[in-house]
Amino acid sequence: MRARTLFDKVWAAHEVRGRSGGGPATLYIDLHLVHEVTSAQAFEGLRLAGRTVRRPDRTLATVDHNVPTSGRDEGIADALSAQQVAALERNCEQFGVPLFSLRSPRQGVVHVIGPELGLTQPGMTVVCGDSHTSTHGAFGALAFGIGTSEVEHVLVTQTLPQRRPKTLRITIDGRPGLGVTAKDLILGTIGQMGVSGGIGHAIEYAGSAVRDLSMEGRMTICNMTIEGGGRAGMVAPDDTTFAYLEGRAAAPERFDEAVAAWRELPSDEGAVFDREIAVDAAALAPQVTWGTNPGMVVPVTGRVPTIDDAADDAEREATRRALEYMGLNGGEAIEDIPVDAVFLGSCTNARIEDLRAAAGVVEGRSVAAGVRAMVVPGSMLVKAQAEEEGLDEVFRNAGLEWRDAGCSMCLAMNDDVLRPGERCASTSNRNFEGRQGRGGRTHLVSPPMAAAAAITGHLVDVRSLDGDLVAGGA
Amino acid sequence: MEPFRRVSGPAAHLDRSDVDTDQIIPKQFLKRIERTGFGEFLFHDWRDEDFYTLHDPEYRGAEILITGHNFGCGSSREHAPWALEDHGFRVIVAPSFADIFHTNCTKIGLLPVVLPEAQVRHLRNHAQDSPGAEVVVDLEELVVVAPDGEVFAFEVERTVRERLLNGWDDISITLNEEELIRRYEATRERHGPSTLGFAS
Q1: A429 near A294, Cβ under 8 Å?
Q2: Which domains does chain B have, with CATH numbers?
Q3: Is ipTM strictly over 0.95?
Q4: What is the C-alpha to C-alpha distance for residues A150 and A146, in angstroms, rounded to an integer?
Q5: What is the pTM of this model?
Q6: Which of residues 368-407 of A touch B (CB under 8 A)?
């Protein structure tokens, strides 16, 4: 038989109907995650057409995008957010969809709760009305973001018409240096391929640097697939994957049998990808974005580019605009850029390992004067785990705010917002204009780099601080 | 969905690459639970920028938007196509689109047209230099006709074209495959996991 990729195998196992005449295939969806911001209109569509949710047992909802991360006992102060959350609660009630509501001990960011429950498993298809659904590909699942019309489609039919993407293998080899995390690997990769380099492709991340990563690190990598334009990001399941899943609430009862099947999933030797890209992990320093998309990234040891560095007129204009928005001249050393705020959170970097890595840097230190720093755990279970380990104390003692779980300042739909002109070192995934608040300026970094910026009050090479650095960690 | 066959009229232009959906419709406007009314917030935070002309009087009523590479990148929010459609656009022409945005557009009958960069520039120049000049986008013939009469052919996936031309609802099409879905569930669906029993 022809050698097949991981993607080929998962795709084939879910074809309800194969492609006919160049059209899309119909793919079966194993897990549909739902949140408050992209689902209301889909449920309304069901009501209008008199349709039902086909498989509530393959659907799970949570509230994360607009919810407050403090003072929850008083409910949601913002009337529109409250209305949106109430709509989800009503919809889940009406259609029988399980929901982790605001006060659930399992509430959290949708891409954190699926994996931590063990719901995300190798070989599955996973969708959600959120572009960072690619996160779940870390388990060897085919996972991708969809729009609200598609949310409605999956609710009704548990399937999606899908055009088959091309395949791209990104091989990240080499041993990352001390202080270089999964976040730096993916930022460096996007810097190399560009923010549209992955359009139309399902990506498999391979190579020794990926194999050596924990599941948290692999999730960070797959999470940011969409920032490179990729349709889905996947990592072949292995012993690291199985060890993470074993014992989780939704893990298969006959676990050994499941593992035996999952071992068949990795790409066959000789499988051919439509494209290949190689990245050298050993050559990467901690990364910092300087501009207004994730591809505008340089090593922390570097300088902000100037307009003259641009290759053509279009890039020159993009650089000019980005520098202007970011309040930078071009040419300054990254480490000379002061920050006003630090955000440790998001579906990219708010799992327990991320919090441990950040706590290791801030332990025994204090947040610099004038810097507002907050830690927003990815889920209430992550929060509870961190508190059990005493990490909340470490953060609080250093002067960081310790919050409840949610998307928070990653997209600033709740009250966690940058003011115009404020500059933030953020562990999130997008540095778009206004993403963290209108006029706010975002520099994307890893959790240890964000922690180091909080302590020093400026962007800084975390390797220059004495502290607990873990090679290849979160 | 209304059938889409042909649009002719003036084009507006947004001469930028990598326009993300956070710009098209900023997050503060995503809290509505209705599907309509987003047009008023289209490109809300760019309204005062020099490069931004979509709301200028000479582009009022334009149903065709000419823009740059990787349009609609970032967030999957369908509110972005909703806002563009609600503003009055029925066609977006660009050298490339982000995947999720592209799909979202076709689901609501907003036609994304991919043309080579030089042809997009040609259309952009006309829109910029002579606002109001007529552009034709014909989904039956699969051509764009520039104001100077130049004709550019484009491609649309066959099933998407059929669906748009007829105004068909995607969900109804899939529901016609009910028998196939049921057979898949009976014989090939993977065992578990179930999402029931965790919520509290």
Answers
A1: yes
A2: 6-187 (3.20.19.10)
A3: yes
A4: 6
A5: 0.97
A6: none
